[in-house]
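Input chain follows. Return structure tokens only.
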Amino acid sequence: MLGALVGQNISTDPAIWLQTFIIIGMLTVIWKNNPIFRIASFTVVGLLAANSLCTALDTINDGAVSLIAGGDYVYVIVLIVAAMSIFRLSESYGWVARFPTAYILGLGLSLAAGPMARVLLEQVAAQSALVIGGSGIALFNGLVSLVACITTIVYFVFTSKIRRNPALAGMAKIGRYFFMIAVGGLCGVYVVGNFQYQGMALEYIVIDFLGFQAVG
């Protein structure tokens, strides 16, 4: 049984009041874009920016400054690269920030390329095994997954050659449909997750802010 809600005193914690204001302010956008929503959204952005700045300063202090003070001078390069990123705020020297950005992107892509390729090959091999040795629903699932994997790869990898090759064009079209189905499924999961978060937010207002408790 769900029981009844028994009201208690409204919370006097300023943090709970602030969180409740932000939740209600964000929900007012359902009505229309209004000053309350803008104040709430600006408050969230400001708090996130302040938290990110404090986290970044702590990371620099713990991960570089303290190590340099201990004699590990190679981290001076890290501080220089980090300082170069700040030049993005300058109109005249914004180009300096391109170097650390390009380095970070290149390093991240190179580190991710190997695992991604291995996962992709393992996926193709697993689906091929289902097609070769499977039967019934397992064979059907393996065949659909294998076709979806290969045609989606063709859609993204051979984009520039599709118009000149009818076979690739057909495979790319099928891959686009599979990709759209996958994105639609992800969007559905995202929407359902947002509904769950909305329920948690309303529960926070009722229980933590208003002080209602379920009994019975």
